[in-house]
Amino acid sequence: MRMHSRQMSFAGVALALCAAVLVPPPAARAFAEDICYTEDGAPAHNCGPLPPVCPLDDPDAPVCGLQAFAAYGFTLRRPLGGRSLVHTDSTYIIARSVGFSERDAYWIAAYDEATDLGSFAPRDVDGRLVPDADSLTTQDISGLVRTHFATGGFLFHFLPTMRGPSDAQPDGLSPDADDPAHEVMLTHLRRWAMAGPGSAAPLCTGGFTNPGADGDYATGAACYGDAEPAQIHGEYAVETPVAIPFDNETGEQVISGDVRSGQFDSWIGDNAWNARTGIYLHALGDRISHRACTDAGTITPPSPDRPEFRIDLNKPTCDQGPHAIRHEYETGVDFAGLEPGDRTTEAMLSMVYDELVAFAQARGTLDERATLPATKTALVSGGLVPALQIREPVERMTAVTEVGCRAGVGQFPGTPTCLA
User: Fold this and answer.
1) Cα–Cα distances in Å, from 180 out to 201, 207, 216, 313, 387?
2) In this predicted structure, what is the pLDDT of residue 75?
3) Measured between alpha carbons, how far is 206 from 371 in angstroms, rounded to an integer?
4) Keywords in UniProt for this one (predicted)?
């Protein structure tokens, strides 16, 4: 017990130092890139594999947490970066399987990944841009990036609920995207994405609108405050109680530089609806990925004596050690060995499948076979889930690609050619 206490103290100090030196502010990484590239053209490698000595049932293991945090801090500095087989390839395969065209599925997946990176262009297994990369590169949406606190981008990745401190915690493995009273940002984004280009539905910083018809802060006709913005003040844990404060103002969301959300459709162009869909799916995935933190976190609305939104993510389950370990649980490990609450990859893929069915139906492209439970089970539980558990990264990428090949939807650009 004494040794464990010393380890915890060491890990806490080291994590705080890492946050200050390696990754200022700490990395908000959900379904983080698992496939990383090198500049010398070597095959892709794991961005942050779980060390073999680290247990699957203890995300609070202090030394493992320090190792995981340092690994992801290093990954952020890699020139070629990487991509997530969960956000990108899996989203593409599911979108194609439920009825989206090859073009639409690609751009949904590309903007899903760009929500983490700011912009996305596909690379092959050796890190080389694909031959037609220029035509497959997203517009810049860096205002939504996970580490951009000043633009409100952070809040697309960490989505706490609006509730009182004594209210029951939500179930972030199955968040309710139709609960504007509590799942403010998630509901707000879904409404904006589903409405499509040219709609009047706003996209607001933090998801905060003027009160909607039922008094919620997610579904109003305009961003909160109109001409007089309110402050958004938050705290995000480094190692509790040490936290990073952040401040924003309500209003239209920053998309890129001076581009605000009211200009989103013209900024993105022909792929605006696909981009909206991908951004929402990313936030949904991150709500599930970060559930240990955001289930405990809270949003407090303005009151007469405190006219600001308060976001409290200074919780032990938001600490950077457990946070990083849980990302290493998301690919390359045996999901059956995880605690039920940490099986986020399976939960995310299941909900993304259901949401893509709903979006395909709304856009008139749904393949009715996708509504059969057996179709979903074969693709997700029988295909993507076992493929994503493979530890070796090139084998994992190949296995995910083969899931799409067997489903008849082909491969994501840059991935290995279908064997059959």
Assistant:
1) 14, 10, 6, 20, 35
2) 65
3) 33
4) Signal
